[in-house]
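Hi Y.,

Following your request, here is the sequence exactly as I used it, all 160 residues.
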Amino acid sequence: MATHGATITWQRGEDTFLDNRYSRAHLWRFDGGLEVPASSSPHVVRAPFSNPANVDPEEAYVAALSSCHMLWFLNLAALGGLRVDSYADAAEGAMAKYSDGKEWVATVILKPHVVFSGPKSPDEAAVEALHHNAHANCFLANSVRSTIETHGSWDYRGTA
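Below is the corresponding structure, written out as tokens. Let me know if you'd prefer a different format.
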């Protein structure tokens, strides 16, 4: 089985730290060399101790689930002879609290808009089946307890 990794680094810098007034900005490094500036969410830790311009873990979680779903959707569409021209998802994650007060990402709503073209036109049932099968195959969706819903739309643009 494959393993996947990331290197996460943070430095205190000049901050005192013990007064809990320190920057939560940090860096994610991936094996391909990409570096992503990250931070706590400004919804959790107010600026300037978080950096709203950076990716926060909750956003990354939503993006990872959306990306995994999309990659499976595209694969399954191609295998089914359906040509996809574009796929755009404005995914959202909603926080909730357990009875003990701990927060979690309870629901992730994927809202993809898919544009198809080519000789084969899907119907509503075919698109729904693609989303269902993409969800069933997504490694990340199979790894989490958040509810993941898909509220997508699609267009068919003929044999362009």
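The mean pLDDT is 96.

Thanks again,
Q.
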